[in-house]
Design brief:
homodimer; two-stranded parallel sheet; globular; alpha/beta; cytoplasm (chains A, B); 7-stranded mixed sheet; 2 domains; 361 residues; pyridoxine biosynthesis (chains A, B); Aspartate Aminotransferase, domain 1; Aspartate Aminotransferase, domain 2
């Protein structure tokens, strides 16, 4: 069966092998007689699934042992509150605003701390990462979104706060490019990621946090979202999203079989070069982001005339190229080309784009 | 294929037909070429799934049109914070404590309001519903857990606060018996339920709330958990747990095919009568709960000697009777017999109990 290519920004395409395995095991996981959905989260079977998922994730991302791996609920939007509830200590927090997601994080944090914009590229329409950062004297932490899903802006290297004279921990929202490139943990205090882009189904949020940052939650932090409580209970304080953890675990196994994050990065480079290369060469389609910080995962692009958008989307769908419509705040098109998107899918998109441009150009 | 009978308290057994349909549709939902897991939550396909789930749930539970139906994340434990964040207005809230879950709700609410115990059966080991309630003058709301999963205590009728001279809205945590009996909405301001017992997979929480109670959240309430924000965005403010909503929707369709909540209640009565009837008649097994408030969903029971527990569980597993171990805070055994448990499963359990008692009695 030939499946269409799904360019959704999230929830997003999953590897076909993962879906096939999930379907095959749906009524009986490993001879247990139960679906994973039906297992007590505290039973031996599910505990082994959870433990394996954590082990594989630690291996894939090379997570140091003094970081907790937490499986939570609520997605990036809930973490916009949960991070300051846990890490701000009611003090000052610096935000580098590079697109819609970091702007949202900044706004939400204001409920819990003195949130400051240390740098912003809003005036440039979020097409680059600002060069000059005005960090506070002693912020509780510094927040960046390392891949802006909506605007298609990605940090090609993590900021080195120490080199900027800042001792505060760096918090990264890496929802939409986690597991597509290595993470330099020496620069990161906390990383969070909604699962529904590169990891698995919606409803699971990964939080990877350095041990010393845990245990300082504000009193108003709900127990279910207090990292200390979550860590002490191995993500079992509230019933975790068991089936989403299981599916994410299947994705981790798939990633390992493919060659891990290094191989994913190699493929991401190849896919991004193919698509941006064509867009720039076309002289017809436009991506507005500074080439030094273009996202390898989310590629927004525009046709010369918005009145062609509907025809473009309809023709794409006919060819099995799905969910290419841009985010409503930006318009145009967006191709999300996460780990599960093969190079052939990007090639099929480029072929279609070339054909469409020739017919309408 | 004969599947074992799974008595887990949650995550719990699902109807086999639901699992079969989920497996069959895993790689291609209704010719879309996508798994439900891969669909944008804002796309036409998933919106139709969400809308159908809400329509079916409203029909099944006869939810009046002036109540919002919200699909959220975090489970009952997160709602223990989210409800007071939304409804307490920082005032006084009364709790009727009838077991482990309402005790936990009371404790968590103290972060956000003046939480009071209006009545408690703790001194009776949570074996009954207290008769005398000392309600406050003007509480923001009154909280009860209408089925205590751990202690096996169930309200056979919802409290009528107006008859008690109280105008406050009633909040019910009905996680572990939702859809097993009708809800008298004239007595209820808000109902919440983690999905992982009677509805679907873990990671989805249903909140059904009267419209006038929404819009009064404390400023410290995270946006993702502000009922007003959730309602205005049709549960799409943060990415919802799409696959869990889909699975719950399959359960709702199954419930409708079975004859709806009235039929579920008839079956629940029959299953509970069979199991409690045998326990009481056995003179060997014991359930300590006052017969007027025994749960039809969760049946804790004890063997005369705890040293027999391991042998009981091992023999049960051999016969395909799974996850019968009692909650660690209570000990003994617990049979959870939710909607997806057929009468034959309860009969198989009773047959085994009889055999075990004859051998060890």
């Amino acid at each position: 069966m030939k499946r269409p290519y799904n360019f959704s920004a999230g929830p997003a395409a999953l590897p076909q092998e993962v879906l096939e395995q999930a379907a095959a095991e749906m009524l009986d996981w490993h001879g247990s007689g139960m679906s994973v959905m039906e297992m007590s989260h505290r039973g031996r079977e599910f505990m082994s699934i959870r433990d394996q998922a954590e082990t594989d994730l630690r291996e894939l991302l090379d997570v140091p042992s003094h970081y907790h791996v937490l499986f939570m609920q609520g997605g990036g939007i809930a973490e916009n509150a949960i991070v300051p509830l846990n890490l701000s200590r009611g003090g000052t927090v610096d935000f580098v605003v590079t697109g819609g997601w970091s702007a949202k994080s900044y706004k939400e944090a204001k409920r819990y701390c003195r949130a400051r914009v240390a740098a912003s590229s809003e005036a440039d329409g979020y097409t680059r990462i600002p060069a000059q950062w005005q960090l506070s004297e002693r912020p509780s932490y510094v927040h960046v979104c390392t891949n802006e899903t909506i605007h298609g802006v990605e940090f090609q290297e993590l900021p080195d706060l120490k080199a900027l004279g800042c001792d505060a921990p760096l918090v990264i929202d890496c929802s939409s490019h986690i597991a597509s490139r290595p993470i330099d943990w020496s620069r990161v205090g906390l990383a969070f990621a909604g699962a529904q882009k590169n990891i698995g189904p919606a409803g699971l949020t990964l939080v990877i946090v350095r041990e010393d940052l845990v245990g300082h939650a504000l009193e108003i932090c709900p127990s279910a979202f207090d990292y200390k409580t979550v860590a002490e209970n191995h993500s079992m304080y509230n019933t975790p999203p068991t089936y989403a953890i299981y599916t994410a675990g299947l994705v981790f196994q798939w990633l390992k079989r493919q060659g891990g994050v290094a191989e994913m990065e190699r493929r991401a480079r190849a896919k991004a070069e193919l698509l941006y290369g064509y867009i720039d060469a076309s002289g017809w389609y436009v991506n507005k982001v500074d080439p030094t910080c273009r996202s390898r995962m989310n590629v927004p692009f525009f046709l010369p005339d918005d009145r062609l958008n509907e025809a473009f989307l309809a023709g794409a769908k006919e060819r099995g190229l799905l969910q290419l419509k841009g985010h409503k705040s930006v318009g145009g098109m967006r191709a999300s080309i996460y780990n599960a998107m093969p190079l052939e899918g990007v090639q099929a998109l480029v072929d279609y784009m070339r054909e469409f441009a020739a017919r309408h150009g």
